[in-house]
Design goal:
single chain, alpha/beta, Rossmann fold, 7-stranded parallel β-sheet, 7 helices, 42% helix, globular, binds nicotinamide-adenine-dinucleotide, SDR, NAD(P)-bd_dom_sf, 3-oxoacyl-ACP reductase
Length: 259
Amino acid sequence: MYGITELSRSLKGSRALVTGAASGMGRATAAVFASEGARGAVTDYDADGARSVAEELTNAGYQAQAWHLDVSDLQAIRNVVAEVEKAFGGLDVLINNAGISGFAAIDDDQYDTVWDRCLSVLLTAQQQMIRAALPALRQSSHPRIVNIASTEALGATAQDSAYAAAKAGVSGLTRALAVELGPEGITVNCICPGPIDTAMTAFIEPEHKQVFAKRRTALRRYGLPEEVAHVTVSLCLPASSYLTGTVIPVDGGLMARNA
Ligand code: NAD
C-alpha cells in the first residue's frame, strides 16, 4: 500500500480461546473467529454444548475444538489453557465471555450467595484466565485479550448490584491490565454489550423486550449475538494494535440515549 504502513487484517492461523462459547455471544464469537480462518478453542461449562458448536464449525470446514471448562475452577482453567496451547502450538487471543445473570435485592436472603457467584464467574475467573494464558500470549505476534462486561458496568438496574459490581470490576481490570501489559504489546479491551437476544435474556417476554428497546435504545431493538461478536473479533485483528484499555458499549445506543 502506498505511503502507509501495511497492517494485517487477517486472522488466518490465529489461535483464539473463547469462554462460554456454547451459547449466545460466545458461540457467535467462536464462529466469527473460525470463519475468519482462526483456530478456535470452544470452551464452556456446558460440555455437550461446546462439543456441538465445535462439531458444527468443523463440519462447515473451519478449525475448532471443544473443551469442557468451568471458569470458576482455577485448576480446570490451568489445565485447559495448557491443553489448548499444546493442541494449537500457542495462543494469540483470549476472549473472557462466560457469564451468568445474578438478580437479588440488597436485603435478599440469597444476596451473599448471588454476590459470591457473580464475583467468581464474572470477575475472578477473568483475571485467572488472563494469568493462566499470559505465558502463551507473551509468545504471540499479536496478543489480544477482550473481556466481556455489560452496560450494567456503566449505568445499572435495581436488584442487579452483584452483577453490576462484577461487571464494573471487569472494566477496572481491563484498564489496569492494559496499562500493565502495554509495554509488552499485549492489548486488553472490554466490551459492554447492551440488551442482546441470547439464552441469558430469554426469560424476558418478547413484548417487554420490544417496549424496553423502543424506549431505551437508539436503534429501537435488541441486538443479535453476531453484532457483538464482530466487534469483539475486530479488536483482535493484528491491525488493531494501537487500541487498548478501551471500554466499548455495543448497545444499540443505549448509553448514548437521553430521551
Ligand atoms: P448465554 O447464556 O447465551 O451464554 C453464556 C455462556 O456462558 C453459556 O454457554 C454458559 O454455559 C456459559 N457459562 C456460564 N457459567 C459458566 C462457567 N462457570 N464456566 C464456563 N462457562 C460458563 O449468555 P450471553 O448473553 O451470550 O452472555 C455472554 C456474556 O455477555 C456474559 O458475560 C454476559 O454477562 C454478558 N452480557 C450479556 C448481555 C445480554 O443482554 N445477553 C448483556 C450484557 C452482557
